[in-house]
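Tokens help. One example:
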Amino acid sequence: MTGSIPGKRKGSFILSSVIILCVISCLLPIIYVLAISTSSKRAILAGEVGLLPVEFNLDAYAAILKTDSIIHSLIFTAILTVVFTFLAMTMTLFAAYPLTKSRLRGVNVILLLMIFTMYFGGGIIPEYMLLKGLHLTNTEWVLILPGVISVFNLIILKSFILSLPQGLEESAYIDGCSDFGILFKIVLPLSMPVIATLVLFYAVGRWNGFQDALMFISKPELYPIQLVLYQIMTGLSDSEVMKEGTGQTNMVSESIKSASIIFATLPIVAVYPFLQKYFVSGVMIGAVKG
């Protein structure tokens, strides 16, 4: 038995080393982008910037903070993300809880139809025609309503609710509690870990989304931050940032691009530590039953 201890230590060391390498491989690009965004024009042009900034300065961030369009899109995206996440979680909760009730007629058929939408869709053109026919294009609602329920997240929440002790609901029924009372007084408080996980899923998905805005939005005031970032990365609004910012037209575009990436990433990254402790437990517990 003692002979197996060195083997376990060796396995733990290898596993830890692999995890550390994975973490480093994820952090290095972010560190490099941060270094580019805080380096001088001369150092960037000379190719001297590595993982540490050279001739540290914050000119790129000053240009971004003085650009009204970027600040507006950041505020708009933050409000959009909050509204979308709230509506999405509300709809997901109200859809998942009834699907856990076997007494509901056609529950399996309803679930099957929902799962069907995960694998088959009409395509981009029919979707555009539908949203245009509903007069949702060029409105903020086109960024909210089409994705307000994720079937994948619904299945996770449904599985979690099914894993809760059935005796709790039965006792509440005996005491005269209604379905809504059970949902808000028993199911909802016990489901906070998985709800926090799904909130993170919805919020990150909405914050990082830009393809729907690219296809359905043509008003600049409705551009989310990721679409503005996409335009900067593709050179569509790079000169605009320089002109509206510090006026330094000789500023290196790479520093603007890198600063924009950091600027658009920080808000959602700042939220993650508050939900991280629920993340693993919520997903794993929600996967107990399917």
